Amino acid sequence: MMRVNTTRFGELEIDSNKIIAFPKGIPGFENLRRFFILPVAGTEDIHWLQAAEAPEVALMVIDPFKFFKDYTCDIPENDIEELELTSPEKPLVLTTITVPGGNPAGATANLVAPIIINTEQNRAKQVIMSGSPYTTKHQLFGQKTSGGEGK
Fold it and tell me: pTM of the prediction?
């Protein structure tokens, strides 16, 4: 167990086995290498990715497959090797979300740069998917469906 100070949650005691290593950090936070996942109170589908080394750094993350039914994530071969993924079914895929101040309904998800976690080794990387049909700001709630199903 290790004690971690956080800005949002105070001092926490975290199982060392729950620490996820980002060997190269996360874009924008390259100097931070250790994170852990915490649930967001009141929801089972949104979590915090809290930095162990920086109390003030916590990113909201979701499982994109629960919110975007047609989402696909093609992990580049070099990232598969870097994360030592032995099976494509094994990684945990998360995407960061941004909630505009005072407007939770306006939340967006970054579907271009998913966080890929090797859950067997607790190693992770934020992967930038080149040529992706997605954007960094997909509406999280109230997405419009295409086609003429509604009347």
Answer: 0.87
Task: State which fold the 2-139 domain adopts.
Answer: BH3618-like (2.30.290)
Question: 128-142 as b/e, with b when 16 or more CB fall inside 10 Å?
Answer: ebeeeebeeebebee
CA dist list (Å): 98 to 10, 41, 70, 95, 140: 22, 17, 20, 10, 9
Residue with tokens 């992967």: 127
Q: How many CB atoms lie within 10 A of CB 29?
A: 16
pLDDT tens-digit map of 56-107? 999 999 999 999 999 999 888 899 999 999 876 679 999 999 999 888 899 9
Residue 146 confidence class, pLDDT cut points 50, 70, 90: very low
Length of the chain: 151
**Residue 67, SS3?**
helix
Residue from 134, 28, 25, 23 nearest 81 by CA = 23
- If you ran DSSP here, which 8-state letter would residue 143 be given? P
CB atoms closer than 10 angstroms to residue 143: 11
